[in-house]
Amino acid sequence: MSILVLPGDGIGPEVTAQAVKALRSVAANGPQFEMAEAAIGDAGLHQAGDPLPEATLEAARRADAILFGAAGTYESDLLPPEKRGGHGLLRLRKALDLFANFRPVYAFPELIGASTLRREVIEGVDLVVLRELTGDIYFGTPRGVERDASGQRIGTNTMRYTEGEIRRVAHAGFRAARQRRHKLCSVDKANVLETMALWREVVTEVGRDYPDVELTHLYVDAASMHLIRRPRDFDVIVTGNIFGDILSDAAAMLTGSIGMLPSASLGEGGRGLYEPVHGSAPDIAGQDKANPLASILSAAMMLRHSLGQEEAARAVEAAVREVLAEGYRTPDIMEPGARSVGTEAMGDAVAAAIQRQRR
Ligand SMILES: NC(=O)C1=CN([C@@H]2O[C@H](COP(=O)(O)OP(=O)(O)OC[C@H]3O[C@@H](n4cnc5c(N)ncnc54)[C@H](O)[C@@H]3O)[C@@H](O)[C@H]2O)C=CC1
Ligand SMILES: CC(C)CC(=O)C(=O)O
Ligand SMILES: [Mg+2]
Fold it and tell me: Which residues of the sequence carry a binding annotation for Mg(2+) (predicted)?
């Protein structure tokens, strides 16, 4: 089994190193992995002049699974796309046609006290945001900044979805709901945007094949309110690229921190890209402060979905619960009386707990 590791920028390399530690701990008495590393993001720009170097894309195509950290910095964010670290990630997802990004939002009972939200709202939260990942306003054309006849600058991006793109992610949403509590909520802005009216129509059509799944629809503005007000009512949320990007960061706070949210980006084949939901966090990079659990939980999703190692995936997840129950906390999830640890020490604690789980 081959894993390509793409640490990227900022806290990307710090958290990814802890996920690699967890995988090595799994491999100590279980499946063997071949791990290789390649550059992406600003790191790719520095190394090869491209946020997605050709060698990285080739290696990604060959790997069984890809573990990604974070790409981009505030400095490169405002440059043209070809010089923008984060663009490397967008291109990778597109090149591998990884259109279904599953972002589980699970409120660990051990972390209820770490959240800024009320216990009665977040206790029992267990939902998945399924974000479409290769279409929408992030990829639609025309795009760019140009000048009109008067010399004024005009910025354009285009929200665009084909029927086929909506259909395939809708199927993925219904299938996911079938594995869970049989509820799918489709989030759109069909009252204003034609693209989203098509989204609602196609999701409704696909829903006829899944009579056992309860389909509901919400507009994205109301959905963001309901997500915070009554998060337990949600099972699977399927939505477009930009709405999913925003809603999942908001939903992260139901778990205590964005440092707790893993994700799996999947296509039609078995190969997946496993990526924490957070970014490169320049404000805490290089300070041993980042929470590595989102990355470690992404590695667990990788073991499950791309490498066929369900038992190992469960061991990693159980190890995370164990260290949380023991009171290990990075600063983002710190609470009074807990054991304050840095990124490295959290990774060590999880790796040791994996050993205990697999004994
Ligand atoms: N998947 C990716 O590669 C993503 C890349 N980005 C890029 O990352 C850079 C920073 O973007 P931001 O908007 O600030 O989002 P961000 O997710 O990097 O950070 C937002 C806030 O959450 C905190 N945070 C993030 N991850 C954390 C972790 N594991 N542990 C503890 N705290 C954590 C940060 O310290 C910051 O205060 C930008 O260049 C952006 O383009 C942003 C989002 C996703
Ligand atoms: C490059 C960005 C679109 C990354 C991001 O915010 C995300 O994937 O959540
Ligand atoms: Mg995001």
Answer: 221, 245, 249
